[in-house]
Amino acid sequence: MKDTLQTIIETLVEDKSQIKINEIDGEKSTIFEVKVAEADMGRVIGKEGRIAKAIRTIFKAIGAKEQKKVTIEFIDE
Hints:
By secondary structure, this protein is of the alpha+beta class. Helix content is 42%, strand content 26%. Strands 1-2-3 form a three-stranded mixed β-sheet.
């Protein structure tokens, strides 16, 4: 799952070296903390959060197949 998220984020951002994805894996849930360069944050979130919502929807479907709840948090620093 992390590789899929990495690929999606890489296609959206310009500064690929600033991508950091932290995976916190629990028994029934997985949390991904995504950090990108400040200039790329708008590209990842999208207008009115549409891209972020689409990414979360994709991973909700992937998690359902594995019977896990997947949460994606976009962290701004």
